[in-house]
Amino acid sequence: MSIRRALISVSDKTGIVSFAKQLAELGIEIISTGGTHRVLEEAGVPVTGISEVTHFPEIMDGRVKTLHPKIHGGLLAIRDLPSHTSAMEENGIEAIDLVVVNLYPFQQTIQKPGVTVEEAIENIDIGGPSMVRSAAKNHQYVTVVVDPADYEEVIAQLQKDGSTSLETRRQLAAKAFGHTAAYDALIANYFNELLGITFPEQLTVTYNKQQALRYGENPHQQAAFYREPRAAAGTIASAKQLHGKELSYNNINDANAALELVREFSEPAVVAVKHMNPCGVGIGETISAAYQKAYEADPVSIFGGIVAANRPIDKETAEQMKGIFLEIILAPSFTPEALELLSTKKNLRLLEWGDSSLTEPAAGLKVQTVGGGALVQEADLGQVTQKQCETVTERAPSEEEWKQLLFAWKVVKHVKSNAIVVAKDSRTLGVGAGQMNRVGSAVIALNQAGDEAKGAVLASDAFFPMKDTVEQAAKAGITAIIQPGGSIRDQESIDEANKHGIAMVFTGMRHFKH
Ligand SMILES: NC(=O)c1ncn([C@@H]2O[C@H](COP(=O)(O)O)[C@@H](O)[C@H]2O)c1NC=O
Q1: Is pLDDT above 90 for 119?
Q2: What's the whole-number mean pLDDT along residues 499-513?
Q3: Which of 137, 315, 322, 500 is catalytic?
Q4: Is 508 left (phi over 0), alpha (psi -120 to 50) or beta?
Q5: How buried is 218 (Cβ within 10 angstroms: 0-12 exposed, 13-18 middle, 19+ buried)?
Q6: Whether the predicted pLDDT of 359 surpasses 90
Q7: CB 341: neighbour CB atoms within 10 A?
Q8: What are phi and psi of 442, to 5 degrees?
Q9: Taking each helix axis from N to C terminus, what angle separates 468-476 and 490-499, rounded to the nearest 10 degrees?
Q10: 51 three-state secondary structure
């Protein structure tokens, strides 16, 4: 289809003047709306105002400008259908072959601090999506461009052939429908948020492609990484890569797990993750001390691991980290010396996640797909304080035990169920993850802790169905236990703890993680 007439109506005017100039040079007539018309005219591009086509003024502060049969008839007419061509002739409608539209900036508007509902509503584009959809529906004849990144290719095709290929028009139409669907999803979500509706009848999530990935969890699986349009600061999707090769699917997943855990802590903390589970966690006076603890927690597993810190990485810490092979280091920031030191490592990726004041994982919905559907839940933002816990044994934890219990509790929340964490001196000693029975995870964690389990504490993500975990803990020399409580056999576990002088506290909250 040769292109003779184009309609341009854009909010984001990036690149529009040069694009329109090239269209004009190709002899294409350009029609345009208020602001776009002004910009093009000022740049010396020959352009016809929309009202000259519709013979109707732009009214109601721009709410109605292109919503007119002369426009939509020109976009929707089937060019080789006699009934349509005669309708065009009878009604003085001329064909429009190219539509260049980008929409009112609804997303940017609602992200502005203190934005009013009225302002948000005024930034819901109606005429734009209508034209985009008309053009996309009729892509057999009409080319629709919603993204300035596509100007170059369209011009190239027009310069070469005077037209665009059907394949290109179909690709642009698919992109256009995706664009309007995402735009409407944002609007729906804005109103749902306003109304406090977390689980609407129709869940319209929308993500933008951030990057293609070499492959998925395994090389035979294709994959890509998508980002929420309004991804919050301090999330993996917002993190900035400062150094190193491209992240893989597993890297992103592990980095997310590490970041979510390190965000639990207010004191300097370092988390090392392998295969979605923490293998070493430490807190300390400084980030360097915290790293040392996370490293010593399991010097074997941290090799090739993903490390997240909640304070800027300084030179001292960078020097410690440089000594071993790590896949990724995530930190709120890196000092210039640390960055220089770590950037010498070719296979290490450095990610900056910005805000070190965060002390809980990101809020929002967690979506997990299942065959033919999705499970949607709120993020696990549960945290407990000492006050909220109930001591159920004869002996209450000492001050130091409390400190270690609450530390281990934060960690166990981020370990795959069934989860057991053994900790002492503000570092993990053993992590038992993902076993099919709880005592199995306990045995793994206690074995890993070895002799160091003596005088350590133990955390369990869910209650003990039997006393066997307490028996194992006692055998290893554990002195205090934190767990949700709530089993019908709680008393057996309490009796067993009392028998060994173990202090046990119930949180009343469990942290399954599957
Ligand atoms: N009301 C209409 O008929 C209408 N037609 C086009 N628009 C939008 O107006 C914007 C461009 O306006 P201007 O050219 O005045 O800067 C574009 O984002 C376009 O999508 C409209 N605006 C809102 O619905």
Answers
A1: yes
A2: 97
A3: 137
A4: left
A5: exposed
A6: no
A7: 18
A8: -65, -45
A9: 20
A10: helix
The CA distance from 57 to 35, in Å, is 14
* Residue 493: C-alpha distances to residues 386, 473, 508, 510 (Å): 21, 11, 15, 17
Residue to mutate (ligand 1; options 65, 68, 124; most atoms within 8 A of CB) = 65
Domains with residue ranges and CATH for the chain: 5-195 (3.40.50.1380), 208-228+237-352 (3.40.140.20), 384-506 (3.40.140.20)
Residue 362: pLDDT band with limits 50, 70, 90: confident
CA 259 to chain centroid, in Å, comes to 12
Q: Return the amino acid letter for 256.
A: N
Q: Is the ipTM of this complex over 0.90?
A: no
How many H-runs (helices) and E-runs (strands) does the chain carry? 18, 21
Question: What spacing in Å lies between the alpha carbon of 104 and ligand 1's midpoint?
Answer: 7
Q: Supply the residue whose CA is at minimum distance from atom 21 of ligand 1.
A: 127
* Ligand 1 site, residue 11, Cβ cutoff 6 A: yes
Q: What is the percent of the chain with per-residue pLDDT over 90, rounded to a whole number?
A: 95
Give me the pLDDT at residue 261, please: 97
CA distance 35 to 50: 11
- Mean pLDDT for 297-309 is 95
Determine whether the shortest distance from the Cβ of 64 to ligand 1 is under 6 A: yes
Q: Is the pLDDT of residue 356 over 80?
A: no
**Is residue 507 lining ligand 1, measured as CB closer than 6 Å?**
no
Cβ–ligand 1 contact at 128 (below 6 Å) = yes
Q: How confident is the model at residue 357 (pLDDT cuts 50, 70, 90)?
A: confident
Indicate if ligand 1 lies below 6 Å from the C-beta of 10. yes
Q: What radius of gyration, in Å, describes the C-alpha atoms of the chain? A: 30
User: How far apart are the CA of 106 and the centre of ligand 1, in A?
Assistant: 13
Contact by Cβ (8 Å): 389, 505: yes
Task: Tell me, rounded to whole angstroms, the distance of Cα 23 from its chain centroid.
Answer: 38
Predicted structure pTM score: 0.91
φ, ψ for residue 50 (rounded to 5)? -60, -35
Beta bridge partners of 48: 31
Phi, psi dihedrals of residue 194, rounded to the nearest 5°? -60, -35
Backbone angles phi, psi at 506, to 5 degrees: -105, 135
Ligand 1: centre distance to CA 11 (Å): 7
Name the helix (H) or strand (E) containing 470: helix 468-476
Contacts of 218 (CB under 8 A, 6+ apart): none
Ligand 1 atom nearest to CA at 66: 3
What phi and psi, each to the nearest 5 degrees, are found at residue 316?
Answer: -60, -45
Q: Which residues of 348-371 are buried (b: 16+ CB within 10 A; e: fewer)?
A: bbbbbbeebebeebbeeeeeeeee
User: How far is the centre of ligand 1, averaged over its atoms, from the C-alpha of 128 (Å)?
Assistant: 5
Q: Does residue 34 line the site of ligand 1, with CB under 6 A? A: yes
Tell me, yes or no, if 275 is annotated catalytic.
Answer: yes
